[in-house]
Every structure is written in C-alpha cells, then in structure tokens.
C-alpha cells in the first residue's frame, strides 16, 4: 500500500492510503486511529448497492457495533439542500441525545464525497470523516483537500466549507465497476494536473489510454498516485485557498462550472472541465500567451479520451449568467487559470467579456450527438 501524507497542522494532517483489494482492512485501520466509535456511512444509491453491505460487515468485524447507513439518489442533481436536510435529519436521529463520537464515512464518487464532507463539516460544528473514493475523479480531485459543499439554486458548490478528512482510503479495485463515461470523466482532472504541473501525465495517458479505459490498474495506479502527490503539495502550501497557490487547481473550472450548471448537470463534472480547459486555452491563445500547437495537443488528447470539447444543449446567455456566480471572481471580475506552456500557468483577471463570449460561442454547436454519445458510454 502506498502512503501519501498531507502535512498540515497537527490536528488536520492526514494520510492517503492507496492500495488494491484492501477495503477489508479499513475497519482495523480506523479502529487503530481512534477517530470515532459510531459509524455513519454516507453513499448514493448506485455505490451503496455495490459496496455498502460489504463495508458494514468490514466495520463489524473490526469491532464497531453502532453503525448506520444513509443513501440518497445518485447524480449531481441530488447534491442539493433537500438531500442535505434529509441526511442531517437521519444523522441527528442516529446521534439522538447521546452525543455520540460519530465518524462519517463517505463512500462513492464526487457527489457523496462533497455531500458527506459538508454534512460532517456542519453537524455540531464539525465531526470527523473519512473518504473512500470509488471513481477516478473522486480519487484525483474532490476526495482530498478539504473543500466540501453542495449546489444551491443550480449554482455549483455555492454552499461549502473547508473541512479536512481524517483519512482518505483508496481501494483501486473499486474502480472496476466504473462505466466508460465515468472513466473518461475522471481522466479530465488528470489532464488538468498534466497541464498545470506535470506534463508526463499527458504522456502517461496518451501512451496507455487503451489500458486505462479498460481499467487496467497497472496503468491507472501511476496516474492516480502522481495526481495525489501534486494536489497534496498544493494543499499543503495553501490549504484554504488564500495565497493564490491553490487557485491553479481551478484550471478549466471557471467556464467548466458555468457550463455544468447551464446544461442542468447533463454534463458530468469531468466533461464540463474538459470543455472549460479548451476554453481557457482558447482565451490564452487569443491573449497571445499560449501556443496553438500546445493547445491542439491538449484538445487532441481530450478528444482521443472521448471527452467533449464542444458545447451542446446550452445557451450562451445562461453560461454567462452562471459565470457571474463564480466563487473565484473578485469585484465582479472572473479569474481564469490560463496556460503559458504545458506545465506552467498564470492567473488572469479582468478578461474582456466580449473575448469570453467569443471563445464560448466558437465552442458552441447545435449537434445533438454530443450528449447522446456521452450517454451511450454510461451503459
């Protein structure tokens, strides 16, 4: 098992444990850490059907007697205040009047991770939690770093908090149940790390794409661990996104989040970030700070993976409206992470609105086949 440490203050430092076929050891690992006595598992309906019973049995064998399970319908559209309220009601009932030492265990992809983390952050001003990511995207992105939240009024992660987990426990064998669309979506975030810091990741994906899409763990494990190490270093330097260092992780996310919301979450997060990255590259190209050759290299790789680089089923006005709600904005001006070269970026603000509109408009299409083809790969 590979251990990657995130070295924050003593009370917030934690480890990422990456292994294969190791889920059966999580109960004893948590028992030894002494971070909770009552287990509250948060998952969605899809992942819960696959792994919840097994996980409960693992905790029972480790000596945990007080265990509850909370499931909610899967999908980004359910990462909302209604689901949050239902989970909090169930958690409060589980706690009763006993003031238990509860550990929340978030099992699943990005939605259970974000939702469960926000529940843990806000219940009684914060309880301990553990992440068990089951998708590539949750592994390399939202499973670590402590940013948790839910969508509100269709605005991505409008309600949120910083709340670090006590442990991120990775069993790569759980990825074996992913469909092709989910694999591709996770790779968008890996491409992001390649552009912002480590170009070797782009080579890794390009050279081993067939094996990665076939869920060959020998091909997947290196790109996941590289991504973890990059994000761990960045989070250590700028935990709460106040120094401008962590901002680099938002490459592709400014327009990406707006597209995700404007499309009513018909695009997954990773698919939206793919679109956001090519738009960021286009803006950088229009500003004369990023070469067409490198932009084409990134776009070609995204297309080869099977990720969208065009925007369908969205209106320009809706995308621009959601851009005004972007959390990274300062004094009403959007901030963009723009590439200067592959492996090096710069934060730019005060990009003319007409330039943003021009770039987005060029990426828009009326083709109905984009979402249809994405949907086919989710079966």
Automatic annotation (TrEMBL):
<feature type="binding site">
    <location>
        <position position="269"/>
    </location>
    <ligand>
        <name>Zn(2+)</name>
    </ligand>
</feature>
<keyword id="KW-0963">Cytoplasm</keyword>
<protein>
    <recommendedName>
        <fullName>3-dehydroquinate synthase</fullName>
        <ecNumber>4.2.3.4</ecNumber>
    </recommendedName>
</protein>
<dbReference type="InterPro" id="IPR056179">
    <property type="entry name" value="DHQS_C"/>
</dbReference>
<feature type="binding site">
    <location>
        <begin position="134"/>
        <end position="135"/>
    </location>
    <ligand>
        <name>NAD(+)</name>
    </ligand>
</feature>
<dbReference type="GO" id="GO:0008652">
    <property type="term" value="P:amino acid biosynthetic process"/>
</dbReference>
<keyword id="KW-0170">Cobalt</keyword>
<dbReference type="Pfam" id="PF01761">
    <property type="entry name" value="DHQ_synthase"/>
</dbReference>
<keyword id="KW-0862">Zinc</keyword>
<dbReference type="GO" id="GO:0000166">
    <property type="term" value="F:nucleotide binding"/>
</dbReference>
<comment type="function">
    <text>Catalyzes the conversion of 3-deoxy-D-arabino-heptulosonate 7-phosphate (DAHP) to dehydroquinate (DHQ).</text>
</comment>
<dbReference type="GO" id="GO:0009423">
    <property type="term" value="P:chorismate biosynthetic process"/>
</dbReference>
<keyword id="KW-0057">Aromatic amino acid biosynthesis</keyword>
<keyword id="KW-0520">NAD</keyword>
<feature type="binding site">
    <location>
        <begin position="110"/>
        <end position="114"/>
    </location>
    <ligand>
        <name>NAD(+)</name>
    </ligand>
</feature>
<dbReference type="GO" id="GO:0005737">
    <property type="term" value="C:cytoplasm"/>
</dbReference>
<feature type="binding site">
    <location>
        <position position="147"/>
    </location>
    <ligand>
        <name>NAD(+)</name>
    </ligand>
</feature>
<dbReference type="Pfam" id="PF24621">
    <property type="entry name" value="DHQS_C"/>
</dbReference>
<dbReference type="InterPro" id="IPR030963">
    <property type="entry name" value="DHQ_synth_fam"/>
</dbReference>
<feature type="domain" description="3-dehydroquinate synthase C-terminal">
    <location>
        <begin position="186"/>
        <end position="329"/>
    </location>
</feature>
<dbReference type="InterPro" id="IPR030960">
    <property type="entry name" value="DHQS/DOIS_N"/>
</dbReference>
<feature type="binding site">
    <location>
        <position position="156"/>
    </location>
    <ligand>
        <name>NAD(+)</name>
    </ligand>
</feature>
<keyword id="KW-0479">Metal-binding</keyword>
<feature type="domain" description="3-dehydroquinate synthase N-terminal">
    <location>
        <begin position="71"/>
        <end position="184"/>
    </location>
</feature>
<keyword id="KW-0456">Lyase</keyword>
<dbReference type="GO" id="GO:0003856">
    <property type="term" value="F:3-dehydroquinate synthase activity"/>
</dbReference>
<feature type="binding site">
    <location>
        <position position="189"/>
    </location>
    <ligand>
        <name>Zn(2+)</name>
    </ligand>
</feature>
<comment type="similarity">
    <text>Belongs to the sugar phosphate cyclases superfamily. Dehydroquinate synthase family.</text>
</comment>
<comment type="pathway">
    <text>Metabolic intermediate biosynthesis; chorismate biosynthesis; chorismate from D-erythrose 4-phosphate and phosphoenolpyruvate: step 2/7.</text>
</comment>
<dbReference type="InterPro" id="IPR050071">
    <property type="entry name" value="Dehydroquinate_synthase"/>
</dbReference>
<keyword id="KW-0028">Amino-acid biosynthesis</keyword>
<dbReference type="GO" id="GO:0046872">
    <property type="term" value="F:metal ion binding"/>
</dbReference>
<dbReference type="InterPro" id="IPR016037">
    <property type="entry name" value="DHQ_synth_AroB"/>
</dbReference>
<keyword id="KW-0547">Nucleotide-binding</keyword>
<feature type="binding site">
    <location>
        <position position="253"/>
    </location>
    <ligand>
        <name>Zn(2+)</name>
    </ligand>
</feature>
<dbReference type="GO" id="GO:0009073">
    <property type="term" value="P:aromatic amino acid family biosynthetic process"/>
</dbReference>
């Amino acid at each position: 098992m590979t251990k990657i440490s995130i070295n924050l203050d003593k009370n917030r430092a934690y480890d990422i444990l990456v292994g294969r076929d190791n889920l059966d050891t999580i109960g004893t690992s948590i028992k030894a850490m002494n971070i909770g006595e009552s287990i509250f598992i948060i998952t969605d309906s899809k992942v819960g059907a696959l792994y919840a019973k097994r996980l409960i049995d693992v905790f029972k064998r480790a000596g945990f007697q007080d265990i509850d399970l909370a499931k909610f319908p899967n999908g980004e559209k359910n990462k909302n205040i209604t689901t949050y309220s239902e989970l909090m009601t169930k958690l409060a009932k589980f706690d009763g009047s006993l003031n238990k030492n509860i550990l929340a265990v978030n099992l699943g992809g990005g939605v259970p991770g974000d939702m469960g983390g926000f529940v843990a952050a806000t219940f009684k001003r914060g309880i301990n939690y553990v992440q068990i990511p089951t998708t590539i995207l949750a592994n390399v992105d939202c499973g670590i770093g402590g940013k948790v939240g839910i969508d509100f009024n269709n605005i991505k992660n409008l309600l949120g908090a910083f709340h670090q987990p006590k442990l991120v426990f990775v069993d790569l064998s759980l990825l074996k149940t992913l469909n092709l669309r989910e694999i591709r979506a996770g790779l968008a975030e890996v491409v992001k790390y390649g552009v912002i810091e480590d170009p070797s990741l782009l080579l890794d994906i390009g050279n081993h794409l067939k094996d990665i899409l076939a869920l060959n763990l020998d091909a997947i494990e290196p790109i996941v661990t590289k991504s973890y190490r990059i994000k761990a270093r960045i989070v250590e330097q700028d935990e709460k996104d106040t120094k401008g260092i962590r901002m680099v992780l938002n490459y592709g996310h400014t327009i990406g989040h707006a597209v995700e919301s404007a499309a009513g979450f018909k695009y997954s997060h990773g698919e939206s970030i793919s679109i956001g990255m090519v738009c960021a590259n286009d803006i950088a190209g229009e500003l004369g700070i990023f070469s067409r050759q490198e932009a084409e290299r990134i776009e070609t790789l995204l297309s080869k993976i099977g990720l969208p680089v065009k925007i369908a089923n969205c209106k320009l006005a809706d995308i621009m409206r959601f851009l005004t709600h972007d959390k990274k904005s300062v004094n009403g001006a959007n901030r963009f992470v723009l590439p200067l070269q592959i492996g090096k970026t710069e934060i730019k603000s005060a990009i003319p609105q007409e330039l943003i509109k021009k770039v987005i408009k060029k990426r828009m299409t009326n083709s109905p086949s984009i979402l249809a083809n994405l949907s086919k790969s989710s079966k």
